[in-house]
Amino acid sequence: MNQNSNQYLAEAPIGKLMMKFSIPCIMSLLVSSLYNIVDQIFIGRGVGYLGNGATNVVFPITVIALAIALMIGDGCAAFLSICQGKKDTEGTKKGVGNSIFLLVIISIILMIIFMFGREGILHAFGATENNIEYARDYFNIIAIGIPFFMFANGLNSVIRADGSPQFAMISTLVGCIMNVILDPIAIFVFHWGVKGAAIATIAGQVVSAILALYYLFHTKSFKLSKNSFKIKGSIVKRVLPLGISSFLTQLSIVIIMGVMNNVLVKYGAMSKYGADIPMTVVGIVMKVFQIVIAFVIGVAAGSQPIVGYNYGAGLFGRVKEIYKKMMIAEVCIGVIATICFELFPLQLIGLFGSESDLYNEFGVLAFRIFLSTIIFCCVVKSTSVFLQSLGKPVMSMGISLLRDFVLSVPLVLLLPLAFGVEGPLFSGPIADIVTFLVVVIMMRHVMKGLDTQMKKEEV
């Protein structure tokens, strides 16, 4: 076992490498996103839109858990790839071992916090009198699965960086298949409602976590020892900043959903739609949006080991070529998504159950307005991951903060003053366009820096 096994990352054609790593990564993230989508579809048809509203209220706790898992996992993956490029074997082992230790400890602490803080959390994320009981039932079970959920998702990034994207995909796929099989059985056969959907979800998460644990005994480019798990501050300080962008991207979803849910409930109650329809619909739109982002991040995160290895090895020309190919792929994804959201919004909202005309009306508006500039969002999200792969956490973090917090949150709060319950739907397009312009300026600077480093290497 040695890091030379990944030398091909610096030699093989870039297009083939990106296909090899990105497709399994896309599948892993897509399957992960489908956990919630599958729950929503079966709950919508078996319980109704109030059940879906309840899962939207609980959804932020899984995003908080995912944010921390990805900060550790993606940070470790970027650190691992850079260490491999530099042939730093000891750094690789320490980085992975420390990251696993953090994942286990933090996930258990988070589960305990969630279980004791249930009521405050549910009300903070917009639970209504109509859906609170459903939300409690779903929350109680989902919280128990948090350690397995975090372990599986955090290790997934590390497994890909170790050169096993197919195994990372399979471990997630198996868990999702179990969820898809158990969901209808629990809801329609045993009539467990939202509780059944939650049980099916954590069953899949447990299986994925077990497979991730199995992989740790069959790694390719490093071998862990007891010493690898001893926390070392200098290693943690190098790993976590590399994952901060992933953390902020996910955490911003929690903040936006919390603010959005409360705003939609408030202004929805003053509109013809009522309090529950806008919140439920936007929750569905956000989860469909996550499917597109799974493709976007899949391309970028799948390319992360290639970027990190080549950057660490000083092959800056290859790094630039990876970014160009990445952008072509992301624009294509954005164009396809835009066509779907603008032309077929009613069909998309209809997947989650047949509801009233008002429900469908707001669903069409939400898809067509909120996701109208998704092509710009694709470029922004993937560029953030690319910068993270280069070991530039400040730039990566800056992009995430600008779009998902600095712009989105104030817009969600202010736009309803002028446009009512439809106002928050315009927050996405405005944030996407402004952040895209900043990214264009920033990447011109980064590319010039790579050109300068190339010239220095030639001398």
In a few lines, what is going on in this structure?
It is built from 18 helices and no strands. It has 459 residues and is mainly alpha-helical. The two termini are 34 Å apart.
CA-atom Rg in angstroms: 22 Å
Structural class based on helices, strands and sheet pairing: mainly alpha
Biggest sheet details: none
Distance between the termini: 34 Å
Specify the overall morphology: globular
> How much β-strand is present in the residues?
under 5%
**Beta-strand segment tally:** 0
The SSE order reads: HHHHHHHHHHHHHHHHHH
Which whole number gives the mean pLDDT?
89
- Fraction of residues in helix: over 70%
Low-pLDDT stretches are none
Q: Count of helices?
A: 18
Describe this structure in words.
This protein has 18 helices and no strands. Helices cover 82% and strands 0% of the residues. α1 (14-46) runs antiparallel to α11, α2 packs across α9 and α17 (393-419) packs antiparallel against α18.
Core attributes:
single chain, 459 residues, mainly alpha, 82% helix, globular
